[in-house]
Amino acid sequence: MIAVPPYKQILKEDGTVVWDMESYQWLLNGEDFESIHPSLQRQAVLNMAYGLYEVVPDRIYQVRGYDLANISFIKGDRGWIVFDPLTAKETARAALDFINDQLGERPVTAVVISHSHADHFGGIRGVVDEADVSRGKVPVIAPVGFMDHAVSENVYAGNAMNRRLFYQYGVLLSRSPFGHVDQSIGKNTAAGTTGLIPPSRIISKPIEKITIDGIEMECQNTPGTEAPAEMNTWFPQFKTFWAAENITGTIHNIYTLRGALIRDPLE
Ligand SMILES: [Zn+2]
Fold it and tell me: Residue 96 in contact with residue 127, Cβ under 8 Å?
């Protein structure tokens, strides 16, 4: 970790709290809570990681603890390539502002979306202007099938799945040892403004090599895995592999209570 933000809350323009790490600080008192499963408590403490991390020196960074997922920044020749811009525009914008504050302001030169779950693309409007995408200035890159599945999960079945998500994670309960503790893959889902910009470039072959802003990437489609449309990325220049959400610090649900498509464990 190279920097901790001076704030613990992220707000909407109208002042509503979208993200609140302050509300989980009780997890850091070193206490064992009898009301929390020990594995969940351990995971909940690990998920208190909050700030800017350097993953590959001077090249790959992550802002962690700003939303359910992590947002990654690859330093290209001209600017940042943003991987997976979180759930909400407010948290994604706060992460971009924070890395720019810490490491110097750089433009966003591309956005890569790993898969069709909203916690990995919903904040895209916080890091890129739709007009820049439509005029071809900033490419938005996603795996084959991304739009179909993003829309079917979040629009057609969106209301039903969202309500089930509230029950699955207890997100409306108070944050306490007797209420909401963690979501295991991250603390919670940001309660901000979710959006979608259609990708301008779809990775359609099983493996596709692209170079964006001086960064070579080998994208590998992995349909029908953690999400129905998902891809991994290999960075040969840094010998670094990004497995999107195909590898997590938890065991994947095969069938989620919120009703995501069945994940085939044999794929
Ligand atoms: Zn996912």
Answer: yes
